[in-house]
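Data card: per-record layout.
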Amino acid sequence: MAHFSRPQSSSAVKISQPTDEDDKAKFSQKKDSPQRQCRNILIYGSCRFQDKGCIYYHPPPSGTSTDVASPEAPAPPSLSAQAVNAPVFVPRTSVDVVPTAPSTQSLPFTPSASPTPYYASQEVEYEGTSLGTYYGTAQSVFVRQPLDYHLYTNPIPETFAPSHFISDNLREDLQKRSELCHTIPSMPYHVPEELQGYHSLVPLEPITPDRRKIVSWFSTVYRATSMTDGAAYVLRRIENFRLTNHAAFGMIESWSRIRHPNIVRVREAFTTRAFNDSSLIVCYDYHPDSQSLMELYFRSMPPSILHGQFSAPLGRIPEATLWTYIIQIANAIRAAHEAGLAVRMIDPTKILLTGKNRLRINACGIIDVLLYDTLQDTGLAQQDDLAMFGRLVIALCCGSITALNALPKAVEVMSRVYSAEIKTLALYLISKPTPHKTIAQIMELIGTNRLAREMDEMQIAHDRLETELMSELENGRLVRLLCKFGFINERPEFAREPRWSETGDRYIIKLFRDYVFHQVDENGNPVVNLSHVLTCLNKLDCGSDERVMLVSRDEQSCLVVSYKEVKACIESAFSDLSRASR
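The structure for this 582-residue chain is written out next.
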């Protein structure tokens, strides 16, 4: 029944336990009922198993006449597209029959808006000398299936989409990040099974001989899982580095005390010989699905200097986005300088885009350890930070790392594409060091108006994410309520009573479950209405005094109860189960 009118009286119908005579009467009634018509007749017009043991009724052809009265069969309704493409119905029989494909074959489901895979390969091979050394013999080929993010919650009722579920774009981004915390690359690799409290090491970048160096040492980045909290972290390994002064780890402790939204947090550092050499390991927070500025703006672009002339890239950075980048990098530099440290890593390969226009400076503290014995004055290092900042701004404006090699042409491009304020800021950053050239002076050049607008945008983004979180706030409460339903309904036996879930207060819970999830319309079709389910569960959880009519499956008895009374029945039954499980 799709809906019920509210009864005028508040009287409840008493529930009586069914007797054996009632069961026998129902059984004899079902046994004497006319035989059901074969579903193949309704769908395909004929049944190829009619003379091979099909136990269902097959009406005679329309052109033939017979004097024998046949059982009444319902008229076949109009067929929908789903019914036409339905699979062949195979009757329950002991005859060994091999069905053939129907004449009308159903096409496979192809989503219209399937997201583009964000990984290069879907095959992960465990052959030869790959993971077999550390994890034993495995299957030869493992095909990794991508997640169909667009199929997780579709279809969503339009009336509940903005208030009960997070947006699809945000959900897909979060699911991609969660999946990247557990993926492994397709290329074979050799890593230690355990490393100073970390396990499941996975390289995050290709290990090639032509990879870039940090000062004079090769570095490799791994993702690892901590044995302490089970979270994923990044381990940056400096190969063939021998630590001569353990006081250098004091710089890592200083960086670990800095918690800034635009700096990847430093966790710890240690040395190890697990890679058959003397390696330095620095641990950072892991931000999955992030890209460096080099990968975004420089690596995939052709050289920008052609015949001595600069050409701005086709996909140039909008000025509003560029100011956002400048403000975030300047804010990170300010936090480091105020702590008496120098960043030393303002490089496109070490600045990560971890979200929508969200930058974080990565690999902080490594150079402080590598060059601890030859460290220059902190003031001079902070001046170098500003100079590297200026070179980065010019490179982003011109779309080329080598833009500073032809400074006049670079300034011409900046003047033609961007405002004069950006050009003035970049030229001031790459100017000669002076005692008054500080990050505080840079913040003044940026301007209080732009800083205020950036703060407004951050607060708007915070409100938007908080709204998305509020839409999921009630889901945990409803899940706990559904878990109670699952514990109580259809329980085979409790306290040596096989029909415990069918008697007493539990019978009311069963009828309410049918009212919420098993409704049908006037044609007998299932009513799949998520709005009705959420409304009923919310009224049940708050214990509303609104009354509802519950009808048994045989439609022989009904019960008028309130949501508050149903909630009391659920709490009582769940308490009985909880006490028995202790």
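Known properties of this structure: The chain has a mean pLDDT of 78. The longest helix spans residues 448-471.

See the next section for split statistics.
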